[in-house]
Amino acid sequence: MEYLRVVLIALTLIAFRHGNDGFNTYFPVPAGVTSSPFAPVIINLGSGHFNGAQTVAISDGSQGGTLTPSVGSPGTSMVTVTPAKGGNNFTLTYAAASTGNKTISFTNGQAWSNPSSQVYFVNTAANRFGDTWNNPGGAPACTGCTHSSYHSNIMNQDIGFNIYLPPQYVSQPSTHFPVVYFFHGNPGNENGAPPIVAPLVESKINAATVKPMIFVFPKTGAHEMDSIPGAPAYGAYMAESTIIYELIPFIDANYRTIATKAGRAFQGFSMGGQGCERLAFKFPQMISSIYCFAPAIDDTGANIGSNEPATLSNMFNGDTNAFNTETVWSLSVSNLAAIKTQALPIHVTIGDQDSLFRDNVRFLAQLDSLGIAHDPLTTATGCGHDLTCDITFVGGADIDYASAHFPRS
Fold first, then answer.
1. Spatial distance between the Cα atoms of 333 and 256, rounded to a whole number of angstroms
2. Distance CA 181, CA 264 (A)
3. pLDDT in tens, 208-256
4. Cα–Cα dist 98/367, whole Å
5. CATH domain 5-122 topology
């Protein structure tokens, strides 16, 4: 059988002398689960002393998956492992036979208490809901730019990004640099913005008017949002989680970044401008500033069904309230205390001929009513919904803005 998803589940099992003691289980964050992968899910039941061999039965409830422990033989739906004394650590590989929610449960022969069943989501790389997440074939040719990708364990597929590295990245091999994450519009992918943005970044760095910085242009999904549990795309379309919990840690682990709030900024255009605001309002503790071009904040629970019926159906199971909760309109209210505490620098630029102009004026008025500080709106005279026009009008002021809020070198 060709299995659709393989998840490595690391387990640490410790047997104890007392019948009411249990064991710890350590799980990686599974596909479709939005809790932070920086720490595993930990269940701690009881404490005591190791007491020799133990017998633990592991089951997926007859869902047909194959469980392969590092001690013992593999089995379909259930296996029993008996680690020897001194060998109480083992790993378990689970290969699911189908997509959807999967439940792993544990029982034992020593009358210990058992941990709660573990649930995770299984998806396939082919289940992309119309998006191609890695696009190396269209990579732009701009100085300092390189196309790359990372593997998303959450979405079970490779996700592409372009990265601009300043000249100092090579000439100063011990230096760490701040990072700007620039989110693209819709339709679009990781290859659209670099030819527009990167040359301006390079020019300003060479002129020494801004700090040397890294720009990352990732492929994102609709609205930079996650699908909700129970929706068809849950697990397969988790844009927010992969950006926050996988992309950013990947960049920090593989490039010399200033891996703190102070060294990280969000920017974007259109849908990406909306994502720039939305992710900032949801995770204000992660970033030093945002500069958003023409944010596409027109979609709410009231109109998402008519504007984007596939998004509402696939990602939100038709639930307009669930979508509305994740918009900038709602997040600026629900996360108000954190946004104010972080005192996030906020700047928006939009063309006066842009159909989204009035929505953005209205949204900044909402921020005023909530007491959320922001810069005055920059109006790009004569510009429609066009990143090149907007960024040319302000002369790359977004780059200056990020630099001004990054740490001094």
1. 35
2. 8
3. 999 999 999 999 988 999 988 888 788 778 899 999 999 999 999 999 9
4. 45
5. Immunoglobulin-like (2.60.40)
Compute φ and ψ for 105, nearest 5 degrees.
-125, 165
Structure tokens at 253: 């682990």
pTM passes above 0.85: no
Q: Which CATH superfamily is domain 136-405 in?
A: Alpha/Beta hydrolase fold, catalytic domain (3.40.50.1820)
Burial state string for 360-380 with b = 16 or more CB within 10 A and e = fewer than 16 = beebbeebeeeebeeeeebbb
C-alpha angle 241/244/248, rounded to 5°? 135
Other Cβ atoms within 10 Å of 62 Cβ, number: 9
The CA distance from 42 to 275, in Å, is: 31
Q: Which residue has the tokens 């630099």?
A: 403
Pairwise CA distance, residues 405 & 288, whole Å: 6
- The full DSSP string for 334-383 is HTHHHHHHHT--EEEEEETT-TTHHHHHHHHHHHHHHT---PPPEEETT-
